[in-house]
Amino acid sequence: MENYIKVITIIIAVIGAFIAFEQWRINKNKLRLDLYERRxxxxxxxxxxxxxxxxxxxxxxEKIIEFRTATSEAEFLFDKEVRGKLDIIYDNAIKxxxxxxxENDESALLFWFSNQYDEVTNIFRRYxxxxxxxx
Length: 135
Description:
This protein is mostly helical. The chain has helices at residues 2-56, 61-70, 74-77, 80-102, 107-114, 116-128. The protein is rod-shaped and about 90 Å long. The chain starts with a helix and ends in a 7-residue tail after the last helix.
C-alpha cells in the first residue's frame, strides 16, 4: 500500500511539472505576441505618417504630435537604431512643416520622405519577421 502512495505521488508530481512547463511556454508565447503587436503598431504608425507626408506634402502639427505619441513607446520596444530613425523622421517632419509655411520649398524633404518606406521596413524587419518564430 505504501508503494502505491509513492507511485501516485510521483505521478502527480510529474503531471504538475508538465502543467507548469506548459503554462510557462504559453505565457512566453503570449509575451512574444504582445510584443509583436506593439512593435507592429509602431511600424504601422510610422508608415502611415510617411504616407501622409508624401501625399499631403504639408504635415499638420496635429499629425506630427500624433506620430510622436504613437511611436513614443519605441524606446522600450526596439534598439537605438529604430528610435534614432523615428527621431529623424520626426525632425524632418518639423522641417517640412516649417518650410511649407515659410519658404514653400519642400521638394527635397518630400523626396526624402518618399524614400523612407523601404528604409523603415528594412529597419523594422528584424523585429517583425516571422522567420525567427519557432514552434
